[in-house]
Design brief:
CATH architecture of the largest domain: 3-Layer(aba) Sandwich
Shape: globular
Pfam families: PGM_PMM_II, PGM_PMM_III
Keywords: Isomerase, Magnesium, Metal-binding, Phosphoprotein, Transferase
Radius of gyration: 20 Å
Strand order of the largest sheet: 4-3-5-6-7
CATH superfamily of the largest domain: Alpha-D-Glucose-1,6-Bisphosphate, subunit A, domain 3
Domain Alpha-D-phosphohexomutase alpha/beta/alpha: 71-171, 179-279
Strand content: 15-25%
InterPro entries: A-D-PHexomutase_a/b/a-I/II/III, A-D-PHexomutase_a/b/a-II, A-D-PHexomutase_a/b/a-III
Number of strands: 11
Largest sheet: 5 strands, mixed
Number of helices: 9
GO molecular function, one term: intramolecular phosphotransferase activity
């Protein structure tokens, strides 16, 4: 919403895995995190209190955008390729993790026309984040449901809806580093050109996958703002951090779990391969 006409934004959330924390996130006009240099400048100004207090007449008004979810869903479906999804007959299992993704998924899934089984859809304000153990247990449970429902795959969103994890059609968890390679393979195989933005911590197998399909890797630092910088360049077709964060450049240059989910459905439908088949054809990384 910030990237659609605002000068910036502020988001309040908890640190992943630390439920008693409070993070105040400042967002620039592109809807992306501030750069590290901008964050340091902001910290310095705040610590030194080098700012003038506003007079009563200078205090602005609060405006609450209407139909935010409908606007978001409409924009997403206009920008991401959803050809063939409605007629595909794909069945997917979606775990909203009682987070913010559950607010937009009902409308989105209805407009996509996909056969989806949604679990944990309600918003639970008492669980703003989750531990690694809770996340793992949720993925194991998701795998069991995917297998019993004979679904094409399963996805699990994090509580804030920025990141997602994958389970293949056999109910097996696809670890985050492999999930990045799976999506990279799908996107690169379909596009056959362009660049993908990946942090330098990513396995060099990603470079092999990209080169095989005629695409190039643009290595970035591990800072999210560096990924978003490359993500908004014209020839960028994909981005990811290897920790469940994916960038869908045709829609947004920042991490968006819902956009990545929609793109994944379309890619799986058009490629006519299962996630386990795609995972199996990607080389394994070995560390000595």
């Amino acid at each position: 919403q910030t990237a659609r006409g605002s000068a910036g934004g502020i988001m309040i959330r908890t640190s992943p895995g630390v439920p008693d924390s409070v993070d105040i996130m400042f967002i620039d006009e592109r809807g992306a995190d501030l750069s590290q240099a901008q964050q340091r400048k902001l910290d310095r100004v705040y610590a030194r209190q080098e700012y003038r207090r506003a007079f009563p007449g200078e205090i602005g008004d609060l405006h609450f955008p209407s139909s935010v979810f409908d606007s978001y869903t409409g924009s997403l479906l206009r920008n991401v390729d959803v050809d063939g999804i409605a007629d595909s007959g794909l069945k997917v299992v979606v775990d909203a993790s009682n987070g913010s993704a559950g607010l937009v998924l009902p409308s989105l899934l209805g407009r996509l026309g996909v056969d989806a089984l949604t679990i944990n859809p309600g918003l639970d304000e008492a669980r703003p984040t989750e531990s690694a153990e809770t996340r793992r247990a949720g993925l194991v449970r998701l795998g069991e449901i995917v297998s019993s429902a004979r679904a094409a795959f399963g996805v699990r969103f994090d509580p804030v809806g920025e990141r997602l994890s994958l389970v293949d059609e056999l109910g097996r968890i696809i670890e985050d580093d492999r999930a990045l390679l799976v999506l990279l393979d799908l996107v690169a195989a379909e596009r056959r050109s362009g660049r993908v933005a990946l942090p330098v911590t990513t396995t060099r197998v990603a470079e092999q996958v990209a080169a095989y399909h005629g695409t190039q890797v643009e290595w970035t630092t591990t800072s999210p703002d560096d990924l978003t910088r490359v993500g908004r360049e014209e020839d960028t077709i994909f981005g990811g951090d290897g920790r469940g964060g994916f960038i869908v450049p045709e829609f947004s240059s920042v991490f968006d779990g819902t956009a990545a989910f929609v793109r994944l459905i379309g890619l799986v439908e058009r490629t006519q391969l299962t996630l386990s088949q795609i995972d199996a054809r990607i080389p394994r990384a070995h560390v000595l």
